[in-house]
Amino acid sequence: QAAARPRDFMSSDLVLARFLGDSDLVVLACDPDRPEFGHVTIALPIDGCCDWPVAAESLTDFLNRLVVAEGDKYWEVRP
Asked: Is 25:43 a contact under the CB 8 Å cutoff?
């Protein structure tokens, strides 16, 4: 992913998962010097990294919220 989109991914980003049926990726910021260290963002296929939604401030929080949402993309704004 980093090679295909070098402007979006930092070398310290860890792609944890891809959602079945689409191209959204779960990305964990792993650089302790970044203010967003530990945050989980959702890499969208057509958006730049500055537009990726932050799904949680930690992996634990992300997983807990995902379980409560029963796998639904809770970070998406719904009308």
From this structure: yes
3-state secondary structure of 74: coil
Q: Write 7-16 long-range contacts (CB < 8 A, 24+).
A: 7/48, 7/49, 8/43, 8/48, 8/49, 9/43, 9/49, 10/34, 15/43, 16/40, 16/59
To the nearest 10°, the Cα dihedral for 42, 43, 45, 46? 100
Percent with pLDDT over 70 in the chain: 97
pLDDT (tens digit, 9 = 90+) per residue, 49-79? Answer: 999 999 999 999 999 999 999 999 999 976 5
Question: Among candidates 20, 19, 21, 40, which has minimal Cα distance to 29?
Answer: 40
pTM: 0.88
